[in-house]
Design a protein that fits this description.
The protein has 253 residues and is α/β, with parallel strands linked by helices. The chain contains 7 helices and 7 strands, in the order βαβαβαβαββααβα. It has a 7-stranded mixed β-sheet, sandwiched between helices. α1 crosses α5 and α2 runs antiparallel to α5. Bound molecules: zinc ion. Zinc ion binds next to loops.
Length: 253
């Protein structure tokens, strides 16, 4: 039986997590937490590279981020539907890894697949806790119900007012290295794009600069060099030690 994970990150496409929560994933691994990434699709509709190449790139990125498990659920890119088949895939993987915290795409974003993934995962996580929904592990054994305690949405293109910002100053470099493992997707001098592969929104060198500027902006809000913002929609977050929690919030530099 696989080791339970502390944090499991779901993504519509391979590279979504690296782009928006890579610093957080690397930080969690450094702190000794077990992490995993579940990509819903292989990114078949991506304008550059192939699904096989993106799979190799994803595995290379996982190693850099210290991710223990990476799974691809093989859903249809551009057509992520909230149906029973897809929910069962997510329920099965959730019951396998039994995470306490789940990261997923934002409920509103530029790419239509991102909110679809967010809603599908949110619904499936609720059903994963119901005993009468039966699933089986890879060996055919029945799985016990499991509902993660917390869902956090990471920020991609469309900004939102973050509930919390993770200080990723210590892992920013690692996260950038992981992102560059997706050589076909982002600007990379070592990748020669095919003739029919256009420059895209994310393959332009300015895109990296924008991503860094945003991480610096959110980092600045918490007095850090780099920050990754998250949205939490499950009400207030409990605090047991007010002084300790607020002491993390540094003054503006
Ligand atoms: Zn995406």
């Amino acid at each position: 039986m696989p080791t339970p994970l502390d944090v499991l990150a779901f993504a519509a496409h391979p590279d979504d997590v690296e782009l928006s929560a890579g610093g957080t994933m690397a930080l969690l691994a450094n702190q000794g937490y077990k992490t995993g990434i579940v990509d819903l699709t292989k990114g078949q509709l991506g304008s550059r590279g192939t699904p096989e190449l993106r799979l190799q790139e994803a595995n290379a990125a996982s190693k850099i981020l210290g991710v223990s498990e990476r799974v691809n659920l093989g859903m249809e890119d551009g057509n992520i539907t909230n149906d029973e088949e897809n929910r069962l895939k997510i329920i099965q993987v959730t019951r396998t890894y039994r995470p306490h915290i789940v990261l997923v795409n934002a409920p509103i974003d530029r790419h239509p697949d991102h909110p679809k993934a967010a809603n599908l995962v949110k619904d499936a996580l609720f059903y994963a806790g119901l005993i009468k929904i039966e699933t089986h592990d890879a060996e055919g054994n029945p799985q016990s119900p499991w509902r993660p305690d917390h869902i956090l949405h990471y920020m991609q293109t469309t900004p939102f007012e973050p509930t919390l910002i993770v200080d990723v100053s210590d892992t920013w470099e690692t996260r950038t290295t992981a992102l560059k493992a997706f050589a076909s997707q982002f600007f990379n001098t070592g990748y020669s794009a095919g003739e029919d592969e256009p420059e895209t929104f994310i393959s332009n060198p300015a895109f990296f600069e924008w991503i860094e500027a945003r991480a610096r902006t959110y980092g600045h809000m918490i007095g850090a060099n780099f920050g990754e913002p998250f949205l939490y929609n499950q009400g207030p977050i409990a605090v047991s030690d007010l002084v300790s929690t607020l002491s993390l919030k540094k003054a503006f530099k």
